[in-house]
Here is the input.
Amino acid sequence: MASYLQIENISKSYGPKVLFEHIGFNINEGDKIALIAPNGTGKTSLMRILAGKDKSDSGGKILFLKDIKIAFLEQDYEFDPEKSIFDQIMASSQNYVRHLDQEHLWEYERRVIKFLTNFNLPDSTQKMKELSGGEVKRVALTQMLASEADFFIMDEPTNHLDIDAIEYLENYLSRSRCTLLMVTHDRYFLDRVCNIVMEMDRGAIYTYKGNYQNYLEKREERIANYNAETDKVRNILRRELEWIRSTPCARTGKARYRINAFYELKDRAEQVYTTKQIDMSDMKGQTRLGTKIINCKGVSFFYGEKCYLDAFTYNFQRYDKVGIVGRNGAGKSTFLNLMTGNYTADMVCTDPEAYRQITSGAMNEGSPAQHTDTMPGLLTGSIERGESLKIGYYRQSGMSFNPEDTVLDVVNDTRLLNRFLFPHNMLNNKIGTLSGGERRRLYLLTVLMQEPNFLVLDEPTNDLDIVTLNILEEYLKEFSGSLLIVSHDRHFLDKLVDHLLIFCGDGVVKDFVGSYSEYREYIKEYEAQQRSKERAQELADKEKKAAAQAYASKQQASTPTKKAKLTWKEQREMEQLEKDLENLASEKAALEESLGSGTLPFDKLQEASERIGVIISETDEKELRWLELSEKM
Here is the structure.
């Protein structure tokens, strides 16, 4: 296998904090590598160095195989909000497309449209400023995948994606013969795509072939072996210490190399490998929860002309652990805001007639989409909350820290901070210097320390490392209140929820009792049954058609008939058909020539492609009629 990437002796520090030092590794053709590490240890910094957007402190070497195509996916996709989706992709792909001839440029544009459609973004003329975070991520992924690069380098590709998009990406990458290096904390995605796990730990790189479970087992073996070696070193150190102390007055006569070796042993003996973990043992949300939690009856919510919730009725129960899944834009976050009462009076209108007047006024001034910042939503039905309810709401966009504040300014409790992996030497670090995952962890702490009895989590797994996720899962399994979780992390949902609300779009919410994997199996079985019914119906239709044809043939054979001649009207029809077919063939040839020219703008390309499809359909229909008439001649 060819070596696609060789890294030697690269380092990165920020002030006194060393992220990694003199690391090196090799990536071969066909490797699909998941890079995992705790937050703040330098994963994104390493990705930026590989992308050429940052430099190694120690120089070193970063050697890509000559002439391979490389595509980078960073966490934050830079875009022009005024550009359309298609124009943004083409503008961001200039380094790639400027080397293409017209034929290959056309192929690239077709691939872009294909991936946008598969990612449920069929309107490529939509402006970037109108997209959600998950939709922007899908645009970035489309640009990357359409390049058909040999080597994909991705930083958190599943963050902000809905589960449908994750599963599409997962299936594509698992079938692809590409080479890839990615940072991910999605354990199902990791298992189904990657064949190697690379761990960055204490500034060093460790590589494990196989899946996530194999990585966990081999990592434990590595740590156990390291600590066993430490015990051996300590035994040797005790013997050497006795020797050093045996004749202190004659120390100068002892072998100098042995004295130096003693101090090296002393340093090694002090290196015990311990894995830090978040301790949540006494944060169980013990605030008493009454029998009435949140009762919803006939709740509907509209924003402009779009329905996000349609006549929703559900009573949350004590100790409910409910997961919410659905596509981006289906209304999941809106639902959480409704349940928690997070909308202010000026954001919600409860009078349908008054709302009609507001929306009609907005439409007279322009399209409703231009007034979403000021237009309230229409809420009908009832939402009742229990008196003892104490909500802790972890929001996707809930972090509003001052970057100049320190960790201790945000949470003035060193005990809690230490338990959440913020040691003493980090307490005075400014928020602006923390990694995204460290800020998320701090925000999570501010929510949990309120001791809620109803915990609402909106995409809590984004930017959290696997260690933090495992500990958070264990805490939430023992949480004594009710849980309401929006998440794209299937492993996280499977471990925690026993009930799902499926947001299907257009306000439709379906109720499913069971885990997410059970729901997916149910859907697969249902779809298989539907396909089986369709195939059975197709077979029955074919059998009926064959029987009818056989009967007709038998009747025709037993009843001699005179060959009919064309009527005057049919003769005129046949002449017109011949003219039409000739005109359609000429139009099709002209359109195909313009498509191949590479000079048409995108909207004209779409029109031409659609027209060719219509021409082919009309040609088939007219040729069939011409054949029917010709048989009478």
